[in-house]
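In response to the reviewer comment on reproducibility (Comment 2.3), we provide here a single inverse folding case reported in full, input and output, so that an independent group could reproduce the run without further information from us. The structure tokens appear first.
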């Protein structure tokens, strides 16, 4: 999946740890306002709050959607 998202002419999008607001864990991409980047896996895990649907994850992005929004793509959830 990730290989189709990488633009070899830029290094703007990359994998990173994040806290993702995810009402449904079935989604594979998230708008920028649902993603809070974290410096480390430990920070992402520590900030998790299942009651508020804040789930630690590894994401890839940001990428521009065809509508002009900045999106992050789910690489994997960290809580599993």
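Designed residues, in position order:
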């Amino acid at each position: 999946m990730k290989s189709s998202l990488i633009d070899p002419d830029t290094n703007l999008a990359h994998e990173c740890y994040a806290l993702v607001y995810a009402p449904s864990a079935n989604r594979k991409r998230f708008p920028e306002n649902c993603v809070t980047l974290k410096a480390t896996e430990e920070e992402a895990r520590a900030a998790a709050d299942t009651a508020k649907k804040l789930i630690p994850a590894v994401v890839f992005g940001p990428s521009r959607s065809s509508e002009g929004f900045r999106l992050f793509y789910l690489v994997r959830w960290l809580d599993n």
